[in-house]
Design brief:
single chain, about 450 residues, alpha/beta, FAD/NAD(P)-binding domain, four-stranded parallel β-sheet, globular, binds flavin-adenine dinucleotide
Length: about 450
């Protein structure tokens, strides 16, 4: 039974993503009461969302119920609610359930949302990739395009139906484009023998002159070669200016007819973080002190994608899972230091490496300073992602799915469900149309490094 001592200090954690989950676990044996609040009842492993979108995995394989994760953590209560406001002056959070939850210490780990840089048509017609809803909408929409293509007699329309545009050459865009190309060439080819799938195109648009800019240039080039081998057309220096659901308009005047546009070109801090009366850095992340405290509010810690902090070289820490996890643990330890009257420690990111997979047998990675490509990088990618999934069941199911896919050239989750509203707006929160920013900033900002 969960009976945390009510005299213990109360720590509220908002967000049960990578950062919040780590923070909550780090407080498991401490003499504190923890309330973990999230709008979802599950922890989502976002790095594999693109595999749900490309019919490789099912939603349950990459999500895990929070109540199950924390079943045995006796000092923690989970509240499923949307936090609408953080009242910094009165040390309480206000939720959609109507309640005000007071805190002694707060860890804000609300993550980020898709940023379409104020382009209203992208909000309306493009798909984001930030939550399970987005991934399922993409999966259904992509599969539905093939069904529709079998039923149209108009070759131009068929071509637009079978053109899949991914915007953003960061890891998410690269992985998504590679996975879609393999879905088409290895799996759907067998399902649609009457369609000429040489017509099907996957086009990856990147505003800068290189892919995966968070990795060294040689790995960006390796990623580009691997994508080309898989049939992905990579267009560099291709900046999207508009999309009307039928045509993608580029800054250089090119127009690309396509009925699918997946936007993987930008994120910004969650709205909850943006609304705080605190200075914002790039991607609207909140500037935090090296101890991860909010300036002027020593009882408030902000971590992960919502926080802006620079490393020792003056570079912003990337919006990546390892940063959020390490910060979650660090914030929890700093709170315990504070409770014991000890000095707080500055956060230092231990960067062990970065990686992106392009699909079957192909990945690029930096690991302990080594540059890896091809099969070896792919095996490491598989292992790292498998081990980071929460729950033995999920690891096993994902492993079996990957093995099945590898040996059988199949994708298990090819259901068109729910039926897509063609070109309906994605479910992610996006920049309001009135916050227009110059088109010049529409670049891959997955990772600012
Ligand atoms: C498609 C995709 C692929 C990625 N691939 C990689 C990768 O390969 N490697 C890597 O390192 N990183 C990757 N990332 C980035 C990584 O997922 C993030 O950096 C990481 O999730 C940030 O952790 P976080 O704890 O800050 O936020 P999140 O993990 O996003 O968690 C935020 C949580 O807060 C909750 N929340 C938000 N607002 C509220 C509110 N108002 N009320 C209640 N709850 C709220 C959300 O429901 C969510 O559970 C990827 C991201 C995406 C979208």
């Amino acid at each position: 039974m969960k009976t945390p001592d009510s005299s213990y200090p109360h720590i509220v954690i908002v967000g049960a993503g990578f950062g919040g989950l780590r923070a909550a676990r780090a407080l498991a044996n401490a003499p504190v009461r923890v309330t973990l609040i999230d709008r979802r009842n599950y922890h989502l492993f976002q790095p594999l969302l693109y595999q749900v979108a490309s019919a490789g995995l099912s939603p349950e394989d990459i999500a895990y119920p929070l109540r199950s994760i924390f079943r045995h953590q006796h000092n923690l209560n989970f509240v499923m609610a949307e936090v609408q406001q953080i009242d910094l002056e009165n040390s309480r959070v206000l939720t959609t359930r109507g309640g005000a939850i007071p805190y002694d210490y707060l860890i804000l780990a609300a993550g980020s949302v898709t940023n379409t840089f104020g382009m209203p048509n992208l909000n309306r017609y493009a798909f984001g990739l930030k939550d399970l809803d987005d991934a399922l909408a993409i999966r259904s929409h992509v599969l539905n395009q093939f069904e529709l293509a079998t039923q149209t007699a108009d070759p131009a329309q068929r071509q637009a139906m079978l053109t899949f545009v991914v915007v953003g050459g960061g890891p998410t865009g690269v992985e998504c484009a590679g996975a879609l190309a393999e879905l088409i060439r290895l799996v759907l080819r067998k399902d649609y023998p009457d369609l000429d799938l040489r017509q099907a195109r996957v086009v990856l648009l990147e505003a800068t002159d290189r892919l995966v800019s968070n990795l060294p240039p040689d790995l960006g080039q390796a990623a580009q070669r691997a994508l080309a081998q898989k049939g992905v057309e990579v267009w560099l220096k291709a900046q999207v200016q508009d999309y009307d659901g039928q045509r993608v308009y580029l800054n250089d005047g090119r127009i690309l007819p396509a009925q699918t546009l997946i936007w993987a070109a930008g994120v910004q801090a969650a709205e909850l973080a943006q609304t705080l009366p605190l200075a914002l850095g790039s991607q609207k992340r909140v500037h935090v002190l090296p101890t991860l405290q909010a300036p002027g509010y020593p009882h408030v810690f902000i971590i992960g994608d919502a926080a802006y902090l620079e490393d020792e070289h003056g570079q912003p820490l990337p919006m990546m899972a390892p940063v959020a996890m390490q910060q979650g643990e660090h914030a929890a330890h700093n709170i315990l230091h504070a409770l014991r009257g000890e000095p707080l420690q500055p956060f230092r990111y231990r960067n062990l490496g970065s990686m992106a997979t392009i699909g079957r047998n192909q990945a690029v990675a930096t690991l302990f300073g080594l540059h890896l490509t091809g099969f070896i990088a792919w095996v490491i990618w598989l292992f790292v992602h498998l081990m980071q999934l929460v729950g033995f069941r999920n690891r096993l199911v994902v492993f079996i799915n990957w093995a099945w896919e590898y040996f059988r050239f199949e994708r298990a989750a090819r259901l068109i469900y729910p039926m897509p509203q063609v070109h309906s707006a994605p479910s992610t929160t996006i920049t309001p149309p009135d916050e227009k920013e110059p088109a010049a900033v529409i670049a891959t900002i997955y990772n600012p490094n």
